[in-house]
Design brief:
elongated; mainly alpha; 6 helices
Length: 129
């Protein structure tokens, strides 16, 4: 006889959704710390290159975490795009001296957080279980 597991409550699903988001953020922070020393110092002195290095460090670690959770490559690519997009967009005003390096780095990170959450909400079936 096969018994079905009782359906998860909305509260439980929301908790798992939030936990998954926190896990990805934790993986990103670990990636920033662990991978940062691997880059040439000259690259890290330039704000535009440093922003892309930071996005890369976070994306590599987040990709590893998502692979461990058996997410598909298309979902991983969407999340990676959400992480790079703010920096890529902000590079244009940075290169035209409309914003400084600090603004580039801070705004890129601030925009990334809700953008990642939006991707998770858009693909709720992938994260809401």
């Amino acid at each position: 006889m096969i018994t079905a597991a009782p359906p998860r409550t909305t509260t439980r699903k929301l908790a798992r959704f939030a936990a998954h988001y926190v896990e990805m953020v934790a993986a990103m922070l670990i990636g920033m710390v662990v991978l940062h020393p691997l880059w040439p110092v000259a690259w890290l002195e330039r704000p535009d290159a440093a922003a892309l290095v930071m996005a890369t460090n976070m994306t590599v670690a987040m990709t590893a975490a998502m692979l461990l959770r058996r997410h598909s490559w298309p979902r991983i690519a969407e999340m990676a795009a959400a992480m790079y997009l703010p920096f890529v967009v902000l590079l244009v005003p940075f290169w035209f001296a409309a914003i400084g390096g600090g603004t580039l780095m801070v705004a890129g990170h601030v925009i990334m957080v809700p953008l990642m959450l939006a991707v998770m909400a858009w693909r709720r079936a992938e994260y809401w279980h």
